[in-house]
Write a structure and sequence with these properties.
With 723 residues, this protein is α/β, with parallel strands linked by helices. Helices cover 40% and strands 19% of the residues. Helix 11 crosses helix 25, helix 13 (278-291) packs parallel to helix 14 (309-322) and helix 23 runs antiparallel to helix 24 (648-658). The structure holds adenosine-5'-diphosphate and magnesium ion.
C-alpha cells in the first residue's frame, strides 16, 4: 500500500490554495476542509450546453443556461429580509429576464451595461414574473445563439457542467475550478482506492479516480450516474464492514452462559393474562439457545407494532435475573433495559412492576429527570422516588437486578456490577462501543437484545443490522381485528367526527396527532408543534367535542406534566389526547381505539404506521383516520398505500419504491446519506456489499491489509453514532 499517496488527499485546502477568510468560513460551512472533502463534494446537478435556451422559451422550474446582454444592474435590499442583493436585467434577441443574486451585492459592479454574459441557474417565479436565481455567471465575448435555434444544432457535442450547492463566499464556479485545479496538480494519480480492485472489477464499478473525473468533469450522459453508483456502493460497503467487524469482535468476548430453569420460566409466563403466540415462543427459544452458548448474544427482534415484544423482553429478563450461571464467579446477573424516551421508559417500568410484583426481584428506573425503585420499603405494592446516587450505588453493588431507563443508562456514572443482558428498544444505532460501555468487565460482554417495530425494507435491515442475528415476530396476538384505515378530506370530516363521538360514547378513547413542522431548527419546531397542538386541542374541546375531556401532550412539556397526562389518559379520565408524534413509539393504552392524524402527508409512511400501531392493542375494532388536504399525486399514492398495505414490512417496501431520489433524506435517522439510500433501493448492490464485506472480515478481521478501509470505518462511525 502506497502510504505517501494519502498525503495530498488529506491536506488542508488552506495549505494548497490561497483562501480569503470568507471562503474559509464558507467552505467549512459546506463541510469542506481537506482536498479529500472537496473531491467528495458532489454536484447537485449538471447543465449542458444542450440546455441553453432563449429567454422567451423559459418557464418556471427550468435549470438552464442563457446567453445575453446586460441591460442594467443595481444593488438592493430584500423588502422584508433586508438581504443585500444584486438585481440585473439581461436580454437576448427574444426577450428580457431579471437575474437576482442574493447576498452578493458586489456582483452589480461586474455587470456594466452591454457586457455579454452566460448565466446558468434555476428559473423561479415571483408574482408572475420570472427571474433566474443566483445563477452562475461567466462573462463572455460572444453570444452563441443570437439569431436562431439552428445555431445550436451545429454544435454537435454538448458539454456537461457540474453545478454545486453554494454558500456565502463559495460559488459553484469556485468549487468547480478548485476541483479542476486539484486534478491538474495530479491528485488523481496519487490517490489510493479504498475498495480492493477485484471487487471493483467484479461489479463493474469505476475506480476512485475515474469516478471522481466522471463526477466532476463528465464527458457523456451516464458518467455521473456510474460514479454515483460507485460512491453509493462504497458507503453501504463501509457500513457493512463496520457492522460485520463489530459482530466478529463481539464473538471474541466471552458471554455469560445461562441455562434457564424451564419450570420457573413456565411459572413466570403463567403470570400473564394471555397465552404467548407461537412467534413469541419461537423468539424466546432463539434467545435461550444463544444464552446457552457462552458467547455474547447479538440479536434483533423485529416485530410489527403490537406484536408483543415487551413480553419477550420481560421473560428474557426474568431468565437472566433468576439464573446463577454455572461459570459465574460474581453473583446474580443484572438486566438493563433502555428506551428512547422518558414516557416509554416509565411505561416499561410500570409494565415490569405488573409482571414482577411479588417476586423477589427489584426494579429501578433511571431517566434524565430522576430515579425510582420498586418496591418501596414502606409500601410493597408501589414504586418510590429515590436519589440517583442511591440507585447507582445499588446498581454498582449488584443489588438491583433490573434497571430500566433512557440514554441515562449509558452515562459514565452508571456501573453495573454484573450486567448479563442489555435490552434496547427502538435504538437502531446502538453499537459495540455503547454495549461495551454498559459492561464493567472487558472480558465479559453482556447479551444484547435489540427490538424494533420500525418497518424497514429488507435491504436497509441487512445493512444497518449487519451485526445482529434476526428473529421476526411475524404474528399478532390471537383475535386482533385488522385496523380500519380511512383517508379523510374536507368532505368526510363531519362523518369522521360523528364516528369518533359514537366510539367514545361506547367507552373508548382517541388520539389526535398534529403534524411535524418542517423547520430547520429543532427547538423552534418543537415550539411550533406545541403551539399547533394547543390550538387544535382548544378547537376540539370548545367547538367539536365540548362534552369530552381533552388532554395535550407534546415535547415542550416538563417530564412530570407528561407523566401526569399519560396517567390520566391511561385511567380513562382523558377521552381525547391531542399530541405530537411523541406518542409515536411504543405507547400502550389498549382502550384507545381511534387515532386521527392531521396533516398526514407530512409524516413518513413508516412513522404513520407506527402511529397507527398505537391503537392495535386489544381485540376491539380499531380505526385510523388519515387527514390530508394535499392533492399532490405522490402524497395521494403514499397515503393510499398506508390504507391498503397489510403490514409494516409491505409498507416499507412500497415507501422505498414510491420515493424519488430527492426525497430520500429519511436515511439520516439510520446514519445513511441520501446517496447511500440510493444503494438501498438496489437489493443486488446491498447483497454484493454484504458478501464482500463478509469475505474481508473473515480473512482480515482487523483490516490490517486494508488500512484505508479501517480509517473509513472509524470516520463513518464517528459521523453517525450519537454519544
Ligand atoms: P410491541 O411489540 O409493539 O412492543 P407490546 O409488547 O406493547 O407490543 O404489546 C401490545 C399489547 O399486546 C400489550 O397490551 C400486551 O400486553 C398484549 N400482548 C402481548 N402478547 C400478547 C399475546 N400473546 N396475546 C394477547 N395479548 C398480548
Ligand atoms: Mg414496544
Amino acid at each position: 500500500m502506497k502510504q505517501d499517496s494519502v498525503v495530498l488527499e488529506t491536506t488542508s485546502l488552506a495549505d494548497i490554495f490561497r483562501l480569503t477568510p470568507l471562503q474559509k468560513t464558507g467552505l467549512a460551512k459546506l463541510g469542506i476542509t481537506t482536498s479529500d472533502d472537496l473531491l467528495h463534494y458532489f454536484p447537485i446537478r449538471y447543465t449542458s450546453t444542450a440546455d441553453i435556451k432563449h429567454i422567451i422559451n423559459l418557464s418556471k422550474g427550468d435549470d438552464t443556461t442563457i446567453y445575453g446582454r446586460v441591460v442594467s444592474a443595481k444593488t438592493s435590499k430584500g423588502f422584508k429580509t433586508k438581504i443585500p442583493m444584486t438585481e440585473a436585467v439581461i436580454e437576448d434577441s427574444t426577450g428580457r429576464i431579471k437575474a437576482v443574486w442574493f447576498h452578493q451585492a458586489y456582483i452589480a459592479k461586474m455587470l456594466t451595461p452591454e457586457k455579454l454574459v452566460k448565466l446558468s441557474g434555476h428559473i423561479e417565479d415571483r408574482r408572475g414574473e420570472l427571474y433566474i436565481a443566483n445563477p452562475e455567471l461567466v462573462r463572455t465575448n460572444e453570444l452563441p445563439i443570437d439569431a436562431s435555434d439552428s445555431l445550436f444544432q451545429t454544435e454537435n457535442e454538448s458539454v456537461l457542467y457540474p453545478i454545486y450547492a453554494e454558500t456565502r463566499g463559495v460559488t459553484s464556479r469556485f468549487i468547480y475550478h478548485h476541483i479542476q485545479k486539484l486534478f491538474s496538480k495530479g491528485i488523481l494519480e496519487k490517490i489510493t482506492d479504498p475498495i480492493p480492485e477485484e471487487i471493483l472489477t467484479k461489479y463493474h464499478l469505476p475506480t476512485l479516480s475515474t469516478a471522481l473525473v466522471w463526477l466532476h468533469a463528465p464527458q457523456k450522459e451516464g458518467d455521473a450516474e456510474s460514479a454515483r453508483k460507485r460512491f453509493a456502493f462504497e458507503e453501504v460497503f463501509v457500513i457493512q464492514l463496520a457492522r460485520q467487524r463489530e459482530r466478529a469482535q463481539a464473538k471474541e468476548h466471552s458471554g455469560f452462559k445461562i441455562i434457564p430453569d424451564e419450570k420457573a420460566l413456565a411459572r413466570f409466563t403463567s403470570r400473564f393474562p394471555f397465552k404467548p403466540t407461537a412467534s413469541q415462543d419461537h423468539a424466546l427459544a432463539d434467545i435461550f439457545s444463544d444464552f446457552k452458548k457462552g458467547i455474547p448474544m447479538g440479536r434483533l427482534l423485529e416485530g410489527d407494532v403490537g406484536s408483543g415484544k415487551t413480553f419477550v423482553a420481560a421473560t428474557a429478563a426474568y431468565a437472566v435475573t433468576a439464573a446463577t450461571p454455572a461459570d459465574n464467579k460474581f453473583g446474580n446477573l443484572q438486566v438493563a433495559y433502555m428506551a428512547p424516551t422518558e414516557i416509554l421508559a416509565e411505561q416499561h417500568f410500570q409494565s415490569f412492576i405488573q409482571y414482577f410484583k411479588d417476586l423477589p426481584i427489584e426494579i429501578g428506573l433511571l431517566t434524565g429527570s430522576g430515579a425510582k425503585k420498586f418496591p418501596s420499603k414502606s409500601n410493597p405494592t408501589e414504586a418510590t422516588k429515590v436519589s440517583k446516587a442511591q440507585l447507582l450505588k445499588w446498581v454498582a453493588e449488584g443489588k438491583l437486578p433490573i434497571l430500566i431507563g433512557t440514554h441515562a443508562l449509558i452515562q459514565k456514572s452508571v456501573e453495573f456490577k454484573n450486567l448479563g443482558l442489555a435490552i434496547v428498544d427502538e435504538q437502531h444505532r446502538f453499537g459495540t462501543a455503547q454495549r461495551g460501555k454498559l459492561a464493567k468487565k472487558d472480558e465479559m460482554l453482556p447479551h444484547f437484545l435489540s427490538m424494533t417495530a420500525t418497518p424497514i425494507p429488507r435491504t436497509l435491515a441487512l445493512t444497518i443490522y449487519g451485526n445482529l442475528d434476526l428473529t421476526l415476530l411475524d404474528e399478532m396476538p390471537a383475535g386482533r381485528l385488522p385496523i380500519k384505515t380511512e383517508i379523510i378530506t374536507k368532505s368526510n370530516r363531519k362523518k369522521m367526527e360523528e364516528e369518533m363521538r359514537a366510539e367514545i360514547n361506547r367507552g373508548h378513547q382517541a388520539y389526535v396527532i398534529c403534524p411535524r413542522i418542517d423547520e430547520p431548527d429543532p427547538e423552534k419546531e418543537l415550539a411550533l408543534q406545541a403551539k399547533s397542538v394547543t390550538a387544535e386541542a382548544k378547537r376540539i374541546a370548545e367547538d367539536i367535542f365540548p362534552e369530552f375531556e381533552v388532554g395535550i401532550l407534546h415535547g415542550k412539556m416538563k417530564p412530570a406534566e407528561k407523566e401526569w397526562v399519560m396517567d390520566e389518559f391511561k385511567k380513562g379520565a382523558i377521552h381525547i389526547l391531542v399530541a405530537t408524534s411523541v406518542i409515536e413509539v411504543g405507547v400502550n393504552v389498549p382502550n384507545a381505539t381511534m387515532i386521527a392524524i392531521e396533516g398526514a402527508e407530512r409524516f413518513g409512511l413508516a412513522q404513520l404506521h407506527q402511529l397507527r400501531g398505537r391503537v392495535i392493542r386489544s381485540n376491539d375494532q380499531a380505526y385510523c383516520y388519515i387527514l390530508t388536504d394535499s392533492t399532490s399525486e405522490v402524497s395521494q399514492k403514499r397515503l393510499k398505500a398506508i390504507a391498503t398495505a397489510k403490514n409494516g414490512f409491505e409498507l416499507a417496501e412500497l415507501d422505498l419504491s414510491l420515493r424519488g431520489s430527492g426525497e430520500l433524506s429519511g436515511g439520516k435517522q439510520w446514519g445513511i446519506s441520501d446517496l447511500g439510500m440510493e444503494a438501498i433501493k438496489n437489493i443486488k448492490m446491498v447483497e454484493a456489499a454484504r458478501t464482500e464485506a463478509g469475505i474481508i472480515i473473515a480473512n482480515d478481521p482487523e483490516l490490517s491489509k486494508h488500512p484505508l478501509l479501517r480509517t473509513k470505518i472509524t470516520t463513518h462511525h464517528k459521523e453517525t453514532h450519537w454519544e
